[in-house]
Amino acid sequence: MSNDAGHLNRRSFLKGLATLGAVTTLPGGLLTSRCAQAQPPIPFKPETYKIFRNACPRNCYDTCSLKTWVKDGVITYVEGAKESTYTHGQPCVKGLTYPRRVYSPDRIKYPMVQDVRGSGNWRRISWEEAMNRIATKMLEIKKKDGSMLGVALSKYSGNLGVMSYAAEGMMTSIGYTTRFAGTPCWPAGIDAQNYDMGDMWCNDPEDMVKAKYIIVWGANPAWCSMHSMKYIYQAREKGAKVVVIDPLLSQTAAKADLYLRVRPGSDGALALGMARHLVDKGLVNKEFVENYAHGYPEFEQYLLNNVTVEWASEICGLDADVIRTLAEEFTAVNPATVWIGYGMQRHVNGGANVRAIDAFVAMTGNIGVEGGGARYGHLQTWGYNYALMSQKPPAGSIGIKGAGGPVGEFVSDSGEKSEYSDRALNINQTARGILDANEPPVRLLWVSSKNPFAQDFDRNKMEKAFAKLEMVVCADQFFNETVQHADIVLPVTTTFEHWDVSSSYWHYWLSVNQPAIKPMHESKDDAEIAVLLSRAMNKLEPGSCTFPQEYDPKRWLDAEFNDGMAKQFGITSWDDLLNGPAKAKMPSTASWYDRKFKTPSGKYEFLSERCAKDGHTALPQYKEAAQSALPFHLFTPHLQYGLHSQFVNLDWMQVFWPEPYVYMHPKAAQQKGIRDNALVKVFNDAGEVELRVKITTNVPEDFVVMYESWFNKHRYNVQNVVKDTPADMGKMATGAPGAAIHSQFVDVILVSNEGAVA
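-> structure tokens emitted (758 positions)
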């Protein structure tokens, strides 16, 4: 029986490395590193290397500042930039595999066309032919429909560098198009914090060392933000207590002083029960609620009339005395903080849950203090000009009537607002959007920094949607599932082959990304691809595309920076970052340090009229979690050494995760007649997945876990059984509701016990 979902011992790790030639088998079956056998050792001569500044632009809390070692034009090693007190000189395991990503034999090397979509019959074509095919199709759509609304962009977080916004700018430069708006990651929580405080703004994670009580609620930083863990450890060394609240016994939970397992989606009830106990015991911070808050008396009355600790206990599954103790311990020290994880708000009641937790933290007076805060995320260091994104549509472009599409309203040189905007479709219901869109239909889909077949929902519906499309273009590095459903694939550069800058949504460091090597094969970055398309379109129809036709990445980086950012980071221009990353110079490490909130009242809003106007409750009231007749709640969290559909496809990473599993409690498995390592089918009315099972007590009896990732050697996709169920919030701030990724249910049946362990 496994005690750790995904655990791999040292011996199996070395065996995996042996298959890659990194270790050797000695007589007697012992394994040893080839490096250890080298006689004599290869001398290390730093002067023979060139070092470049890079930044990891993946959708990750840590956004690591990197230093890349290059010898004879080849990347040999990637390390963390020691100048960053956050990265602290060490990337995660994923970062250490970056050289393999660059030089992977599986990488897409040239523009290619697939003769029959999904057939695998790919032919190499030139960039000129690829751009001519795409430009011809776009102009055909324009002629047929009278607009470019039949062209759609599906782009998200495969590359969060600011230069990747060239893809959005490219779309704007051809006219008003269709955009998939919103985000699958964190929108319900963004809305919640906007209703409560007027913006999403978290303390500097480095100030967690000052906290005397830390609750990590629905997050797993041991896997998903390893650099933040050192601050948690340092706080504990100084006497802080660390509590993890999660339905799953995660690696972070295993390292905590106290782990509290709650039922999925019950977080709001627990927070409200804790809040009620503060009222009962007179532990509410009167200074905060009387001087810096709006609507607290109404919220307190709601608690007195509708909430009891026993009620919360029944819903969340924790003993009532545990809830009382937790609330009392949190208020007994100062400062205390809650890390609100993104997984916790991926429920049908996710936004309501975040508002309840915010309210509890506010009642204790821990908002606006160093070491405190209701930590969720921020965009305080993202003050770019977004020049590449802010292109102008060609003269005479027609779109949806009414300004204010996904990229905002267009203003001409004369200052006149356009009467048109882009058409917005919900990014969390991509398949439904394509199938339902008419007048005009979506005819061409451009996919960039995204893998819809692995990341969007309801796979069966997605296949029908792609079948409806007339052309699919993917800009990518690997032949993932979405590329397999494309007509044309364009090879894009890696982090180490283009200019960029990267900010974090968690810490406050800014990093430059310089090309460490020349682009491999025929790969190009998003900006150069936009330039090539502009040239092709204007050759066929002059004036049809406004994107610049000259490629000058350094000039474009100049255009992204402004005096505000220079002052914020204490630099004169982005060139200064070539000497090392820079940290924002903030008045305090605490968000809302002056307690001047961006709400309509200027105060923390327990009662939000704006929230009520948007169709929710004005107060942070309890909202029920999802229910189902199916026996198992399904969780699909991030893999330790993968990020969405990236990294695990690399052979180096397959040493850690050679194949996917579904994790199941022993009692549940016994009831189903399932043994460890048996082949099972996980299914619901959306679809099914066949894979092997690992039996572990880390998951509850009515729970199964399948880690979200792309294993390129296996027909596996958690999205087969994840529906496009919306979360309660997200539309106000991001344009579309969030995705209730964790409000999903399945059943499991045995397929075969062949290979199972008794």
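The chain has three domains: 112-185+383-495+519-571, 202-376, 632-752.
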